[in-house]
Design goal:
CATH architecture of the largest domain in chain A: 3-Layer(aba) Sandwich
Largest sheet of chain A: 7 strands, parallel
Radius of gyration of chain B: 21 Å
Number of domains of chain B: 1
Strand content of chain A: 25-35%
Largest sheet of chain B: 9 strands, mixed
Oligomer: heterodimer
Strand order of the largest sheet of chain A: 7-11-6-1-4-5-12
CATH architecture of chain B: 3-Layer(aba) Sandwich
Strand order of the largest sheet of chain B: 11-10-9-12-8-1-6-7-13
Structural class of chain B: alpha/beta
Chain lengths: 320, 271
């Protein structure tokens, strides 16, 4: 009855999300008095999972699994779920995990809850807290079915070190067939992604035009942050749609979110509300963002941001 | 996985609208959700969403998909049906989809407790009516489950593209783009297909506001009500909770950005 997690890796390296759900599964397993098994596909060093509480790894090494395929991967996790006689599967909220998650839940007949943000509140029946109404509310949901599946929100639990004596087992799988073929992938190079970033720096219409985005980019550079923008900015074509954060764009749950020249429409705030610390820089003291942020500067972005960049450069040189 | 043989015969008699055989059949799943600007409150001891004074709309992610479906209908020839799993109060939202240009609406009469229940109801219609393309949204902006399209695909064994930001169809071959963390992935596949759509399928500026003619025509279009099958109870809501009101903001003078750096480092521990 081990808890089964899917430890996602890319080019052989585990994603941070994998360590976070391993940590989450460890705490949950201790409460249920059971163990944690991870399914791992083509990772270089499965032993790494032993730093975060995983007891056993079902290690799969197979060249035909080099590229992610939701149907085939979901089927592998199903095989592992059955082989471990598990009744609880835990996934991250990465794009790939959510893609395969809905397929998996049907395959293993599991009641499925996404956006989970805390360790289960109750275990019989399993009851968890999740984000709902696009970060405007929390919802407690219970699972009545025998098999259960959770997708844990990014940055909600954190990565917690917990050394275990890990056991690595080679897992033989059969590959399902799929008519989904990935022809190519277009990735922005050398950039921190909004999903993975600890810090996100975001610009709005207050920056007056795309030519002024150097401020956002330089500030992001100093902080090692991802860049983002508000909806009007992407609608105007100043920045690519992939940077749009908000209710209909990307959802941000970073540690620090810095909004420059963004007034803070309710749809924008909904998309960034689960970020831990929010900073606003805006020349309009009545901008709604000042009601949602933790720290704020009322002032002209064109004066404040360059000063902030200089100040942070000095800070970084003294604190690294 | 999904056995529909027993239902199929019944369903044929229920259906009154027929399309030419060779035309692509599209089904767009429409979630009926509170407008994006709604204040979110709960009632009945925090167990139910308070609909009082709330304006309901087509879920934004579904609207992008519906608009793309209209494009297929107009440029390539397709029939477009819309479906919702809900009680009678969702009908104005389905009528709006008809006013935008959908041919027929289906409402499965059920107050769904979870995503799987919605998926099961829709999967039954998808397989009994043999739709070629099923368009859902990445997630609904109310419960944010983000699972219904994938579950439908899993139940009826169709190909599936999540977070779909572009879709082209050529006979039974499709090319789609899926949004991933670092950019996008270009996928080739075949019909029948389910997608979970979002902005990018069409742009905001492509969205259509129903005109008077569309609204008048929508009144005469078919809105079929079907009883639910096999209600699912695998998960259910226990209660809701609103986030605690935010503490006061700490304002820093624009002449003293070093103080902001200091606070972010020492107090918030964010840098």
């Amino acid at each position: 009855m081990a808890i089964l997690i899917y430890a996602e890796s890319e080019n052989g390296k585990y994603k941070k999300d994998s360590f976070e759900i391993a940590s989450y599964a460890r705490v949950t397993a201790d409460k249920l008095n059971t163990s944690v098994t991870a399914v791992s596909i083509n990772a270089d060093d499965p032993n790494e999972l032993g730093n975060y509480g995983v007891d056993k790894v079902l290690h799969i090494s197979n060249d035909s699994l080099k590229n992610f395929n939701a149907v085939i991967y979901a089927d592998i996790i199903k095989q592992a779920f059955e082989s471990e006689s598990s009744n609880l599967a835990i996934l991250s909220s990465s794009s790939n995990a959510k893609y395969l998650g809905s397929l998996l839940s049907v395959k293993i007949n599991a009641g499925y809850i996404t956006n989970v943000i805390e360790i289960p509140k109750e275990f019989d029946p399993l009851t968890v807290k999740r984000n709902s109404f696009t970060n405007k509310a929390f919802e407690y949901t219970k699972i009545n079915s025998k098999n259960r599946q959770l997708a844990v929100s990014k940055n909600s639990h954190g990565v917690i070190e917990n050394k275990t004596s890990i056991q690595i087992e080679t897992f033989e799988v059969t590959l399902a067939s799929s008519e989904i073929n990935v022809k190519s992938t277009e990735k922005a190079s050398n950039k921190v992604t909004i999903a993975d970033a600890e810090i996100v720096v975001s610009g709005g219409r207050g920056l007056k035009g795309p030519e002024n985005w150097w401020m956002v980019e330089e500030l992001a550079d100093v902080l090692g942050a991802a860049t983002a923008c508000s909806k009007p900015v992407s609608d105007l074509g100043w920045r690519p749609h992939s940077e749009h954060v908000g209710q209909t764009g990307k959802l941000v749950s970073s540690n620090l979110y810095i909004a420059i020249g963004i007034s803070g429409a309710i749809q924008h705030l909904a998309g960034i509300n689960s970020s831990k610390v929010k900073v606003v820089i805006n020349n309009d003291p009545d901008a709604p963002f000042f009601k949602a942020a933790d720290y704020g500067i009322v002032g002209d972005a064109f004066e404040v941001v360059p000063k902030l960049i200089e100040g942070l450069k000095t800070f970084k040189s003294q604190n690294t | 996985m999904f056995d529909n043989k027993n239902f199929k015969l019944n369903y044929v008699f229920l259906s009154t609208k027929f399309y030419p055989l060779n035309i692509m059949k599209i089904l767009v799943c429409i979630s009926h959700v509170p407008d994006t600007t709604s204040k979110i409150n709960f009632t009945e001891n925090n167990s139910k969403f308070d609909e009082n004074g709330v304006q309901f709309v087509i879920n934004p992610n579904d609207e992008f998909g519906l608009t793309r479906a209209m494009w297929f209908k107009e440029k390539q020839g397709a029939s477009v049906d819309v479906i919702n799993v809900g009680l009678a109060d969702t009908e104005p939202t389905l009528r709006k989809a008809l006013a935008i240009g959908a041919d027929k609406a289906i409402r499965i009469n059920s107050d769904p407790k979870n995503g799987l229940n919605v998926a099961k109801q829709i999967a039954y219609i998808v397989s009994s009516e043999s739709y070629d393309l099923v368009i859902g949204g990445r997630e609904s902006i109310d419960y944010n489950g983000g699972m219904v399209p994938g579950m439908i695909a899993g139940l009826v064994n169709y190909n599936f593209v999540d977070k779909c930001i572009s879709l082209e169809i050529n006979n039974d071959s499709i090319t789609a783009a899926r949004e991933i963390e670092e950019g996008k992935e270009i996928i080739e596949s075949k019909l029948p297909l389910v997608i979970a759509g979002q902005k990018g399928l069409v742009e905001e500026s492509d969205l259509r506001i129903p005109n008077m003619r569309g609204i008048m025509m929508a009144r005469r279009k078919e809105l079929q009500v079907i009883n639910a099958i096999d209600e699912d109870n695998s998960t259910c809501t226990v209660s809701f909770e609103k986030p605690k009101p935010k503490g006061e903001i700490t304002l820093v003078s624009s002449d003293n950005v070093d103080e902001l750096i200091n606070l972010l480092h020492n107090e918030a521990k964010a840098i």
